[in-house]
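Reagents: none. Just compute today. MATE family efflux transporter.
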Amino acid sequence: MAKNEAQMDLTQGPIARKLLLFSLPVLYGNVLQSLNGTVNSIWVGKFLGESAFAATSNANNVMFLMLSSIFGIGMASTIMIGQSIGAGDTAQAKRVVGASALFFFTLSLVVGILGVLLSPQILQWMHTPADAMDMANAYLRIIFMSMPFMFCYNMIMTILRGAGDSKTPFRFLVLSIILDIALNPLLIFGWGPIPALGISGSALATGISQLVALVAILVSLYRKKYFLRITREDRHLLRFDGAIIGSLVKKGVPMGLQMIVVSTSSLAMINLVNRFGSEATAAYGAAIQLSSYIQMPAMAIGGAVSSFAAQNVGAGRWDRVHRVTGVGVMYNVLMTGVLVCLIYLFNRSALSLFLPEGQAIEIGMRINLLTLWSFIIFGITFVVSGVVRSTGAVMFPLLITFLALWCVRIPLSYYLADSYGLDAVWWSFPVGFTLGSLLSVAYYFWGNWKKASMLTGGVQKA
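Predicted 3D structure written out:
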């Protein structure tokens, strides 16, 4: 099987070094994505006001919910591709690419259309502050119109990572972020013949940058004759393959539901925070921006161990699967711990990037004090779950997430908020993260996840 220079065989060689090399482009990409969101939030928060910042905070939570609705399909296809590559079955990998691409695109259209139609109702359900409602709706509708570009672009990146290539996705991610950062002030404030679009300009900049990156990465892959590209001879693979689609739905829906559980819990949290006014909402939005940086190592390593483990599961290298878990947890604790310490050292300065001096910054500092350290625990869950899902074991991680969030964290917040105020909301983070981590580790050691499979006969059992 021919591979390009950016790909790695994840079934051979030193695990610690290869996992780090594979993780770093993913981590850098996460850093740049969060930096992009941060820069855009600064433009909105500093120049359009707290109401506009509260609008984007609400709208971005809804966008995450919609992205989550088809996240599982992309993750399931990534795992199947990784297992196929690990087993040396390129034909099977291309079969997965063809069927999942068509299915994924169809779902993205459905999500985008529903989002445009229902965005006002969703924002009302969230109790979006009245002064932010019109701006949030305008922003969100443009984002939904851009969903097909976003989903297709992100799916191509996950396919490449499943095949062992994390460098190519990073290069085109840099392109999209540079475009987004450059277009934001241009479209928000206008210049020459370009009208000032305000908050809608920020959403439009995101959509344009995703479309350009999608076209660019497709052109590059076909020029290089990437081994998983769909050629004219492979057009028959662009169909609703019953076996592939069945596995995508069976395995992808629980993974998508897991993300929906996370995103709906975020909506429930911001719904609760909204009741305390725009200052609390703005502070929470700023704290979430910072916590996104804290989560980046866990997300990068979790994604890397999933691709890493999938190839080794396909190759029957279970000794390497278990070593990947240990190395991944170690990297997470070290990297996340360093970032937590840095934010604690520069707490007020970091929040002041998003917020004017005042009560909102004081609330944000309290949020960080009570929640940031618990993201180290969250990272352990993310890494362990990434390995478990690489076999096709998807139901128990979903159950763990539901228990930790909707059976503990959300009820705890709502029940105690009236008596103890916002501190009850912030303390629910470490409580939920700790429960999820304990359950995930217990399932890893004593569960039957190694007996799961993505496709019948497609996985070698331990």
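The mean pLDDT is 84.
Action item: order primers for follow-up constructs.
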